[in-house]
Amino acid sequence: MRLIIDQGNSATKLHIATHDDIIESVVTENEDMLEYVRSRIADNSFKAAIYSSVRREYDKRLINVMSRKIPHIVCMGNTTHLPIGIEYRTPNTLGHDRIAAAVGAWSISPNRPLLVVDAGTAITYDLVSAQGKFMGGNIAAGIEMRLQALHEHTGRLPRVKSDGELPWLGYDTETAIRSGALQGTAYELEGYISTCEAENPGLLVFLTGGDAERLATIIKRTIFVDRNLVPKGLNRILEYNVEI
Fold it and tell me: What is the pTM of this model?
Protein backbone atom coordinates (compact mmCIF):
# COMPACT_ATOMS: atom_id res chain seq x y z
CA MET A 1 0.00 0.00 0.00
CA ARG A 2 0.93 3.66 -0.43
CA LEU A 3 0.30 6.68 1.79
CA ILE A 4 -0.67 9.94 0.05
CA ILE A 5 -0.55 13.20 2.02
CA ASP A 6 -2.04 16.37 0.54
CA GLN A 7 -1.53 19.23 2.99
CA GLY A 8 -3.58 22.38 2.57
CA ASN A 9 -3.52 25.67 4.47
CA SER A 10 -5.63 24.49 7.41
CA ALA A 11 -6.44 20.82 6.80
CA THR A 12 -4.74 17.79 5.31
CA LYS A 13 -6.22 15.05 3.14
CA LEU A 14 -4.69 11.64 3.76
CA HIS A 15 -5.29 8.76 1.39
CA ILE A 16 -4.39 5.10 1.41
CA ALA A 17 -3.92 3.74 -2.08
CA THR A 18 -3.07 0.64 -4.02
CA HIS A 19 -1.56 0.58 -7.51
CA ASP A 20 -4.82 1.54 -9.19
CA ASP A 21 -7.26 2.76 -6.55
CA ILE A 22 -7.80 5.07 -3.58
CA ILE A 23 -9.19 2.79 -0.88
CA GLU A 24 -9.48 5.19 2.07
CA SER A 25 -9.55 8.96 2.52
CA VAL A 26 -9.54 11.06 5.68
CA VAL A 27 -9.46 14.82 6.28
CA THR A 28 -7.70 16.00 9.44
CA GLU A 29 -6.70 19.35 10.87
CA ASN A 30 -3.04 20.12 10.25
CA GLU A 31 -2.18 20.11 13.95
CA ASP A 32 -3.56 16.55 14.21
CA MET A 33 -1.80 15.26 11.09
CA LEU A 34 1.37 14.00 12.76
CA GLU A 35 -0.41 11.81 15.33
CA TYR A 36 -2.83 10.45 12.74
CA VAL A 37 -0.01 9.44 10.40
CA ARG A 38 1.92 7.94 13.31
CA SER A 39 -1.05 5.75 14.23
CA ARG A 40 -1.72 4.66 10.64
CA ILE A 41 1.83 3.65 9.82
CA ALA A 42 1.99 1.70 13.07
CA ASP A 43 -1.00 -0.38 11.97
CA ASN A 44 -0.20 -0.74 8.25
CA SER A 45 2.71 -1.73 6.08
CA PHE A 46 3.33 1.00 3.50
CA LYS A 47 5.84 0.51 0.72
CA ALA A 48 5.97 4.18 -0.27
CA ALA A 49 4.51 7.60 0.47
CA ILE A 50 4.18 10.95 -1.28
CA TYR A 51 3.86 14.21 0.61
CA SER A 52 2.52 17.36 -1.07
CA SER A 53 2.03 20.70 0.67
CA VAL A 54 0.73 24.09 -0.46
CA ARG A 55 3.22 25.63 1.96
CA ARG A 56 6.22 24.27 0.04
CA GLU A 57 7.80 23.76 3.47
CA TYR A 58 7.57 20.21 4.69
CA ASP A 59 7.08 19.11 8.28
CA LYS A 60 10.42 17.55 9.20
CA ARG A 61 8.91 15.77 12.18
CA LEU A 62 6.41 14.05 9.89
CA ILE A 63 9.12 13.04 7.44
CA ASN A 64 11.21 11.60 10.29
CA VAL A 65 8.23 9.59 11.58
CA MET A 66 7.47 8.20 8.12
CA SER A 67 11.13 7.42 7.41
CA ARG A 68 11.22 4.93 10.28
CA LYS A 69 8.44 2.82 8.76
CA ILE A 70 8.20 3.64 5.05
CA PRO A 71 11.16 2.78 2.77
CA HIS A 72 10.40 5.27 -0.03
CA ILE A 73 9.17 8.84 0.50
CA VAL A 74 8.69 11.50 -2.20
CA CYS A 75 8.19 15.16 -1.26
CA MET A 76 6.62 17.06 -4.15
CA GLY A 77 8.87 19.85 -5.36
CA ASN A 78 10.37 21.56 -8.40
CA THR A 79 12.76 18.65 -9.02
CA THR A 80 10.15 15.88 -8.76
CA HIS A 81 9.99 13.90 -12.00
CA LEU A 82 6.60 14.06 -13.70
CA PRO A 83 4.88 11.83 -16.28
CA ILE A 84 3.71 14.94 -18.16
CA GLY A 85 5.64 17.93 -19.48
CA ILE A 86 5.19 21.43 -18.07
CA GLU A 87 4.94 24.36 -20.48
CA TYR A 88 3.99 26.87 -17.76
CA ARG A 89 6.32 29.87 -17.88
CA THR A 90 6.85 29.87 -14.10
CA PRO A 91 6.69 26.19 -13.10
CA ASN A 92 8.02 26.97 -9.62
CA THR A 93 4.78 28.89 -8.90
CA LEU A 94 2.49 26.18 -10.25
CA GLY A 95 0.43 24.62 -7.47
CA HIS A 96 1.09 20.97 -6.70
CA ASP A 97 -2.66 20.32 -6.69
CA ARG A 98 -2.96 21.62 -10.25
CA ILE A 99 -0.08 19.40 -11.39
CA ALA A 100 -1.50 16.37 -9.58
CA ALA A 101 -5.00 16.85 -11.00
CA ALA A 102 -3.54 17.11 -14.51
CA VAL A 103 -1.48 13.96 -13.99
CA GLY A 104 -4.51 12.17 -12.56
CA ALA A 105 -6.62 13.01 -15.62
CA TRP A 106 -3.78 12.08 -18.01
CA SER A 107 -3.30 8.71 -16.26
CA ILE A 108 -7.00 7.94 -16.87
CA SER A 109 -7.20 9.23 -20.47
CA PRO A 110 -3.75 9.55 -22.06
CA ASN A 111 -3.15 10.78 -25.60
CA ARG A 112 -6.24 13.00 -25.57
CA PRO A 113 -6.46 16.76 -25.01
CA LEU A 114 -7.83 17.38 -21.54
CA LEU A 115 -9.45 20.30 -19.74
CA VAL A 116 -8.98 19.74 -16.01
CA VAL A 117 -11.22 21.83 -13.76
CA ASP A 118 -10.73 21.88 -9.99
CA ALA A 119 -13.71 23.59 -8.36
CA GLY A 120 -12.72 24.37 -4.80
CA THR A 121 -12.04 27.59 -2.89
CA ALA A 122 -10.66 28.83 -6.19
CA ILE A 123 -11.50 27.30 -9.56
CA THR A 124 -8.64 26.33 -11.84
CA TYR A 125 -9.00 25.60 -15.54
CA ASP A 126 -5.97 23.76 -16.92
CA LEU A 127 -5.30 22.41 -20.39
CA VAL A 128 -3.21 19.29 -21.08
CA SER A 129 -2.31 18.63 -24.71
CA ALA A 130 -2.74 15.29 -26.49
CA GLN A 131 1.05 15.01 -26.28
CA GLY A 132 0.92 15.07 -22.48
CA LYS A 133 2.04 18.64 -21.86
CA PHE A 134 0.57 20.99 -19.29
CA MET A 135 -0.04 24.03 -21.48
CA GLY A 136 -1.27 26.45 -18.80
CA GLY A 137 -4.52 27.54 -17.28
CA ASN A 138 -6.55 30.16 -15.46
CA ILE A 139 -7.56 30.76 -11.86
CA ALA A 140 -10.95 32.19 -10.87
CA ALA A 141 -12.87 32.72 -7.64
CA GLY A 142 -14.78 29.68 -6.39
CA ILE A 143 -18.50 29.64 -5.66
CA GLU A 144 -18.25 30.31 -1.91
CA MET A 145 -15.71 33.06 -2.53
CA ARG A 146 -18.10 34.75 -4.98
CA LEU A 147 -20.96 34.59 -2.50
CA GLN A 148 -18.76 35.94 0.30
CA ALA A 149 -17.38 38.76 -1.86
CA LEU A 150 -20.87 39.94 -2.84
CA HIS A 151 -21.74 40.21 0.84
CA GLU A 152 -18.50 41.82 2.02
CA HIS A 153 -18.03 44.33 -0.79
CA THR A 154 -21.58 45.69 -1.04
CA GLY A 155 -23.67 47.66 1.37
CA ARG A 156 -26.84 45.58 1.59
CA LEU A 157 -26.46 42.20 -0.10
CA PRO A 158 -26.81 39.32 2.39
CA ARG A 159 -24.51 36.33 2.74
CA VAL A 160 -26.35 33.60 0.83
CA LYS A 161 -25.71 29.87 1.16
CA SER A 162 -24.86 27.93 -2.00
CA ASP A 163 -27.49 25.28 -1.19
CA GLY A 164 -31.05 26.16 -2.06
CA GLU A 165 -33.33 26.97 -4.95
CA LEU A 166 -31.50 27.67 -8.19
CA PRO A 167 -33.78 29.18 -10.85
CA TRP A 168 -32.37 30.36 -14.16
CA LEU A 169 -33.42 33.90 -13.21
CA GLY A 170 -33.64 34.84 -9.56
CA TYR A 171 -37.07 35.87 -8.28
CA ASP A 172 -35.79 37.49 -5.07
CA THR A 173 -32.46 38.74 -3.73
CA GLU A 174 -31.43 35.36 -2.29
CA THR A 175 -32.05 33.39 -5.49
CA ALA A 176 -30.60 36.20 -7.61
CA ILE A 177 -27.31 36.02 -5.70
CA ARG A 178 -27.19 32.21 -5.59
CA SER A 179 -28.04 31.82 -9.28
CA GLY A 180 -25.65 34.60 -10.19
CA ALA A 181 -22.78 32.77 -8.47
CA LEU A 182 -23.60 29.20 -9.51
CA GLN A 183 -25.14 29.75 -12.93
CA GLY A 184 -22.42 32.30 -13.68
CA THR A 185 -19.75 29.73 -12.79
CA ALA A 186 -21.48 27.15 -14.99
CA TYR A 187 -21.58 29.55 -17.94
CA GLU A 188 -17.93 30.34 -17.33
CA LEU A 189 -17.06 26.64 -17.40
CA GLU A 190 -19.08 26.02 -20.56
CA GLY A 191 -17.29 28.95 -22.19
CA TYR A 192 -13.90 27.43 -21.42
CA ILE A 193 -15.07 24.06 -22.76
CA SER A 194 -16.31 25.61 -26.02
CA THR A 195 -13.07 27.51 -26.60
CA CYS A 196 -10.87 24.53 -25.76
CA GLU A 197 -12.95 22.17 -27.94
CA ALA A 198 -12.60 24.50 -30.93
CA GLU A 199 -8.82 24.41 -30.67
CA ASN A 200 -8.44 20.83 -29.40
CA PRO A 201 -10.70 18.33 -31.21
CA GLY A 202 -11.56 15.31 -29.11
CA LEU A 203 -11.27 17.25 -25.85
CA LEU A 204 -12.24 15.47 -22.64
CA VAL A 205 -13.29 17.44 -19.57
CA PHE A 206 -12.47 16.34 -16.02
CA LEU A 207 -14.10 18.04 -13.05
CA THR A 208 -12.88 17.65 -9.48
CA GLY A 209 -12.99 19.55 -6.19
CA GLY A 210 -15.59 20.20 -3.52
CA ASP A 211 -18.10 21.85 -5.85
CA ALA A 212 -17.61 19.42 -8.73
CA GLU A 213 -20.79 17.42 -8.29
CA ARG A 214 -22.90 20.55 -7.82
CA LEU A 215 -21.58 22.10 -11.02
CA ALA A 216 -21.98 18.85 -12.92
CA THR A 217 -25.74 18.98 -12.34
CA ILE A 218 -25.96 22.46 -13.88
CA ILE A 219 -23.80 22.38 -16.99
CA LYS A 220 -25.08 20.79 -20.17
CA ARG A 221 -21.92 19.01 -21.24
CA THR A 222 -20.48 15.51 -21.08
CA ILE A 223 -17.83 15.61 -18.38
CA PHE A 224 -16.05 13.18 -16.08
CA VAL A 225 -16.46 13.94 -12.37
CA ASP A 226 -13.76 12.47 -10.14
CA ARG A 227 -13.26 13.86 -6.65
CA ASN A 228 -10.09 11.76 -6.26
CA LEU A 229 -8.30 13.22 -9.25
CA VAL A 230 -5.59 14.91 -7.12
CA PRO A 231 -4.69 11.82 -5.01
CA LYS A 232 -4.79 9.65 -8.13
CA GLY A 233 -2.31 12.03 -9.73
CA LEU A 234 -0.07 12.02 -6.66
CA ASN A 235 -0.20 8.23 -6.68
CA ARG A 236 0.90 8.20 -10.31
CA ILE A 237 3.71 10.68 -9.58
CA LEU A 238 4.85 8.44 -6.73
CA GLU A 239 5.02 5.46 -9.08
CA TYR A 240 6.93 7.55 -11.62
CA ASN A 241 9.63 8.35 -9.06
CA VAL A 242 9.87 5.10 -7.10
CA GLU A 243 9.92 1.48 -8.18
CA ILE A 244 7.24 -0.08 -5.99
Answer: 0.93
